[in-house]
Amino acid sequence: MSLPVVVIGVSHKTAPVDVRERFAAGSDLLPEVLARLSQRPELEESMFLSTCNRVEVIALPKPGRSNEEAALVASRAIREALREHINASSIEEMSDWLYERSGEDAVRHIFRVAASLDSMVLGEPQILGQVKDAYDAAVSAGTLRNHLSRCMGRAFTVAKRVRTETHLGAGTVSISSVAVDLARRIFGDLRDCTVLLVGAGEMAEAAAKSLGKTARSIRVCNRSFERAANLAATFGGTAAPLDQLEAELAISDVVVTSTSSKSFLVTRDLVKRVMKQRKGRTLFFIDIAVPRNVEPDVHKLDNVYVFNVDDLEQEVAENMKARQQEVAAAEAIVDTELREWSSWAKGLHVQPAVVALRAKTRAVLLAELERSLGSRLKHLGETERLALHQMMESATNKLLHAPTTRLKAAAASADGSDLVDALVHLFDLPELNSTSENGQKTAAEAAVVEEPLPH
């Protein structure tokens, strides 16, 4: 039977932002994390997903063990890799934050994450792009290949169906839009406010779209001035390089930060200097980055307010009421796709048996035919010999059609494993070991890779 997918991670449901940012890995660290996972002999495939609200390792165990043992061994390997990643003293130090899924529960979780059913903002569109980016990075690193790659492909199908067949993503509810709504409630319609976006990525762009034309002005400050200028031009704003951040803070009222910096860009000392220049005028920070861009102590300064992604959760809940009505329809799509995936995955252990049976039958018949052609039938010409080979191939197909069909039909049932065991025993198919003695896949196992995933 196919090995179980294993997922271990932290999310906004299990860990606060100061914990999640320890696990997070931007694009600069991702190759290092994937390399660490690929070096784990217990893991066959793996990918690493890091967003502002979750960090997950998705993996497939190495073959050669029972499903239960394989999942357990893979779990320990993943936890050890995460321990190294955050420099924890022990695996137990992380136990209060981590969640784990395996088998069908893991696949269901992956489908729900891609479809934004597990997001802080239900139905938000950014998560699918983030999952695809993580998928591309794993494929490029060579850590994602066959079975797990197909699982992620199915997850993308689920997300697309949920997006097109339900209204789960209706409206403009996102972390960025919720942040902007909060700013509007504090400052009014923002017509008298200057809004500064620190960062020029996808989250900053979403925040700019949510701001629309209501702010007095929009300014963009980013490490890459070119990216800042491009984003600012899109919304009629003004760009500045990151080394001018202090000057930009001095003239701004609402600051939305969303960079991938691993250290605080906005420190208490920096804001103390800025507030002297502002002569006490209120400064409002919305930090939607993980790791956080704004030092928490900034919030302790007079007339300075800081909200991070965890603070936005209550705001999100208020905006989710309309979307909750679409959850049942979206979950039904997940259930349907999961059943199809599970049926396909459970049938993987049947395919090697079918391949091995056909190979052995064909080899026996071919050997007998060649023996006859070398003795009693050696007088036959090329045309007659070809006709006999074609007849043998046809006989093989007809002889094995019924057992092959019934074996595949029983693949997803409890009888599937028993039938495979009986087939191996009755036809003496010892080559159906999961791996050969030197660790290489057998021809029968390799054939499973070529079995197409439904649609």
TrEMBL record:
GO terms for biological process: protoporphyrinogen IX biosynthetic process from glutamate. It catalyses: (S)-4-amino-5-oxopentanoate + tRNA(Glu) + NADP(+) = L-glutamyl-tRNA(Glu) + NADPH + H(+). The active site is at C52. Pfam families: GlutR_dimer, GlutR_N, Shikimate_DH. Residues 329-429 form the Tetrapyrrole biosynthesis glutamyl-tRNA reductase dimerisation domain. Its EC number is 1.2.1.70. Substrate binds at T51, C52, N53, R54, S119, E124, P125, Q126, Q130. Residues 443-455 have a biased composition (Low complexity). Residues 8-166 form the Glutamyl-tRNA reductase N-terminal domain. Pathway: Porphyrin-containing compound metabolism; protoporphyrin-IX biosynthesis; 5-aminolevulinate from L-glutamyl-tRNA(Glu): step 1/2. Keywords: NADP, Oxidoreductase, Porphyrin biosynthesis. Residues 181-314 form the Quinate/shikimate 5-dehydrogenase/glutamyl-tRNA reductase domain. NADP(+) binds at G199, A200, G201, E202, M203, A204. The record marks H109 as: Important for activity. It comes from the Bacteria. Possesses an unusual extended V-shaped dimeric structure with each monomer consisting of three distinct domains arranged along a curved 'spinal' alpha-helix. The N-terminal catalytic domain specifically recognizes the glutamate moiety of the substrate. The second domain is the NADPH-binding domain, and the third C-terminal domain is responsible for dimerization. Homodimer. Catalyzes the NADPH-dependent reduction of glutamyl-tRNA(Glu) to glutamate 1-semialdehyde (GSA). This is Glutamyl-tRNA reductase.
